[in-house]
Amino acid sequence: xxxxxxxxxxxxxxxxxxxxxxxxxxxxxxxxxxxxxxxxxxxxxxxxxxxxxxxxxxxxxxxxxxxxxxxxxxxxxxxxxxxxxxxxxxxxxxxxxxxxxxxxxxxxxxxxxxxxxxxxxxxxxxxxxxxxxxxxxxxxxxxxxxxxxxxxxxxxxxxxxxxxxxxxxxxxxxxxxxxxxxxxxxxxxxxxxxxxxxxxxxxxxxxxxxxxxxxxxxxxxxxxxxxxxxxxxxxxxxxxxxxxxxxxxxxxxxxxxxxxxxxxxxxxxxxxxxxxxxxxxxxxxxxxxxxxxxxxxxxxxxxxxxxxxxxxxxxxxxxxxxxxxxxxxxxxxxxxxxxxxxxxxxxxxxxxxxxxxxxxxxxxxxxxxxxxxxxxxxxxxxxxxxxxxxxxxxxxxxxxxxxxxxxxxxxxxxxxxxxxxxxxxxxxxxxxxxxxxxxxxxxxxxxxxxxxxxxxxxxxxxxxxxxxxxxxxxxxxxxxxxxxxxxxxxxxxxxxx
Length: 497
Prior knowledge:
Oligomer: single chain
Low-confidence stretches: 12-25
Strand order of the largest sheet: 7-6-5-4-8-1-9-12-2-13
Number of strands: 18
Distance between the termini: 73 Å
Structural class: alpha/beta
Helix content: 25-40%
CATH superfamily of the domain at 25-203 and 294-416: Alkaline Phosphatase, subunit A
Largest sheet: 10 strands, mixed
Radius of gyration: 23 Å
């Protein structure tokens, strides 16, 4: 064979190889979907948090896109997870509250990835009561799981690990990537942390880490809820009321799982705190006592978030060290938002911004421009469709969301979401809020507590903290009427009840 012919063939093969690599990056990239449990956007410094620093999550935002207006359709753990998996509202996927069992036979985005040549795996919190399907490999926490020395269900069999759950989930997920049976295939990896779900327990080295000074409290911590519905006024999901009783209830199973060394470290860190807490309860009252409780709550929460951030850094370093950084999409989100003292509350459920809005950061090298902040309204209903679209996989017509892949690429979306429809189905006061539904157009928010037929309406441009319920304000009656009409249309569109 002549020398020129050989050189020509080498050039052609190099070009084909380059095109193949480009095709993998653009059309069939690896995808790592990281989801924490109850990680409020207010506790991420990329969202201008004034109370903490999350440098590794921030790095994802610096190298990718941060969404300022990502909302959930139902701010509760199991329903949110089912919406993300199916791209369908709670009423259609069958998981309307935390008591429902997810039907794993229905179509999910991991199943579609698996059918289209991806190797798939799930590590961490499942919380849907059924057996996961659509995964070549899974290691899930049973139920809520525990933070220390947790038991996992590995492809149907129980296995126990020593250590802290966030670290274990990351370690085993990265080990799976290294030991994949089909390394030539692209992969879809779901990493679902239990943290920072209550009782907000961090890893042992961080029991007393940081936050020695006072942490700034939200300005609505002592809100009196004047003018609001009875659902909000009479709810006891508060820092002042239920938080510490709940924490004590949840802490016992966690302490039982600790080994001797962990338990000794726990007592060294918390015995003096618990003693001070009992003294404060005896000597403080009203807002002073609430403020002291808030300090304990928020510091424990942020220390738990700190370990998540460390592990996000480990994932990024692993991708870099293993030459996977350029062809891997990394998503960071939470199953919903979380009240960090806003309106005096903790937990989620209520269609106020703290719980309704969720963090969403996506890094896609060579495709997403770095350090982009996007203001389009997107929803967790859109996640499945968007991930499928990124991978070049057809989106089933039954899915109800809208792919925001064009937004990621800096293009105008074909469909621009005008409203977010929200529906919370779990009726469990005082632990929670009554059933309610509503819609949000980016400025105006209408909420209907339909079991008591009470309404709330907010103008977030003038009142971003959602302090003044303007439902009875004469100046807004025309807008309220139009939103009620839109609410009826949205329910008909999405065929929900």
